[in-house]
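queue> holo job accepted (guanosine-5'-triphosphate)
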Amino acid sequence: MNNTFPLLKARIGSQVIIDELKGGPGFYRRLIDMGLLPGTNIEIISGGTNGPIIIAKDGIRIGIGARMAAKIFVRPA
Amino acid sequence: MNYTVAIAGNPNSGKSTIFNALTGLHQHIGNWSGVTVEKKYGEYKIGEHIINIVDLPGTYSLNPKSIDERIARDFIISKKSDLVVVVVNASDLEKSLTLLIDILEAGIKTLVVFNMMDMVKIQGKTIDIRTLEKILNIRILKTVAHKKIGTDRLKLSILQEIKTPTQQRFKIQYKERIETTIKKAIKYITVPENIGVNKRWIFLKFLEGENILNFSEETLKRLNEYKKIISDFLHSQNLELYFVEKRYAYVEGLIKETVKNELPLEKRIFISDRIDRIVTNKFLGIPIFILVMGAMFYLVFTIGTPLSNLIESFFEWISVIIKTFLTGLNISSIIISFIVDGIIGGVGSIIVFLPNIALLFLGIGILESSGYMARAAFIMDKFMHIFGLHGKSFIPMIMGFGCTVPAIMSARTLDSEKDRILTILVLPLMSCSARLPIYVLFASIFFPHKEAFVVLSLYFLGIIIAMIVARIFKNIFFKAKIAPLIVELPPYRMPVWKDIFISVWIKSKLFIKKAGTVILLAAVIMWVLASLPPGVEYASRESFIGKIGSFFAPVLKLSGFGFYEAAVALIMGFMAKELVVSSLGTLFGTTLRSSIQTLFTPISAYAFMIMSLVYVPCIATIATIKQEAGWKWSVIVILYSIILGWILATIFYQTSLLIKTIF
Ligand SMILES: Nc1nc2c(ncn2[C@@H]2O[C@H](COP(=O)(O)OP(=O)(O)OP(=O)(O)O)[C@@H](O)[C@H]2O)c(=O)[nH]1
Ligand SMILES: [Mg+2]
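queue> job finished
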């Protein structure tokens, strides 16, 4: 699949699917604790385009720092 | 009978709210993840039974990443409790249930509480609790904890559940090959007496990378062989991810079966999101934060200062009355001085600031309760990184405006040890509520009508110094990368006013109690030292206290306040920051304001405020740093703060003088 891109670049209001978590063990443990596993459908609420980003997964809102968002690869839903 | 019950669950699911409802205590509550960072104990009585309740820190999973999560995990799996009450945030079932089934798989006796049922209604969902109970073989109670709905029934159900002998046998069935390997592997595991979980779960956690029992070399080798079989079988994909995914998949199935969305997604309005688009905006985020803080301190002054003036007049009035009354009774002037200078002067001078302090706590309470704290961490992340700090460091920093001690504890939520220690090192630079009286007193004497601005400048100065100090320490001691930021942003909530007022009330009471104990005692000691040797003029340079102060005073000369009264006040401030003002109160008695006015100039007054801000944290803070980070760091904090305080006060004083003479 070549149409993946870092979450950091996602646009507000768009829906994406988590494709791959490209980080160390500590990094993905934090993500999977929040239920952000590969295959998860998320929506971009605010921020983004190189800044920290707020995403929605079902009812909950999660803030993700820019450096972390750069390592989460997503594809359009 | 005596029973012990632990309250566990995801962060911010309402555990402490339930704890408070059960025990009648008032543990700290706030609308962000990581409010409780230490086990808290309470109890309630039911019939002839006493139920001891342990409120645990929140945890996302049983694979801890930070100290607070580890405390929770260790307690959950220990045999210390007869029952674990798992609090589920019913409006966020997925995460909560994933933790729940992990706890169930461990074979721990549980009672489940579905809290935040009011939110479920707002979301337009219905949950088929009966079916969930059946599938998971558990009992579920519904609560709306902050309104105490369902909490009385919980008291009873806890007892019933303890008395019902149930064996929790829930497990997720994995692929045949995995199951057979697990069966073989657990033969090598023995569960110690004090651990209350089954072998299978311990091995599953081992596969996920958690060596809970600290296996011996030999066992470790065996288990690793089995781990290898499983990871080969799964084509060596990440095992932790594999098992977590299984749990999530299971929970997804559960939710599909039992939860109905009555409102279509697009119909739901998310007010929180609209607020967040503004509050966390790239350009507006930090300005809004500054505005919020500004507004808070504005309130502390505009409402607080008239009230404290009132109290001050009251103390002046009562001093005069007592003085005339006692003089009329022909009572020796020594006793009169003791009461008027020593006690009223010392204790009264600090009690005066109770309104300001109570309002400050009110402001912090509103911030904590609304949900803004989590946003602050998010907004500040990038900014904090410049200085080597983590976004989450910002939450303890705001708490530090109240009191440094709980702020240091709350740094436990930081995942990385280095981030945590660095945060602790700079937390004393956040102006705590005990420093507020110093600022208010001096600002009102030397900068009338500009008090709010002057005091606010000191708060920001504290933040700026903290940032710079953090950057320097980062470069010296903590060269590692800062952990990435991921933080849950709970929906904004109307502050729960009752909780806030109770918390302000408790903190105000603590302040008054401190005034009646530590501060009173210090005032008495100081009065004695100021009255001796016999025959000496009260609080003169020849008195004992004058001699002690005069010994240190020369050091402070360059900073602009090289007189003994300032030295004494600063020395006393090491005990508790409230003593800076109260010592001056004891020394000067009823002439506090005019004496300060003659001794200080506006410039030296500001230098003195800088000194009070930076130099050495109080004893309680030092003790907490030692507990949380070790004695080495507490010594470093003492040293750097004293030196830095002196240098900054001196630089400010000298350059201001220079500028003044030039212009
Ligand atoms: N709407 C709603 N809010 C609740 C309910 N119960 C608690 N709250 C609020 O949820 C927030 C979190 O409550 P806490 O009791 O501090 O949560 P906690 O689980 O102890 O959190 P940590 O200590 O951080 O793990 C507070 O703002 C409470 O007022 C509820 O039933 N409904
Ligand atoms: Mg709590």
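queue> Helices of chain A lie at 25-33, 66-69.
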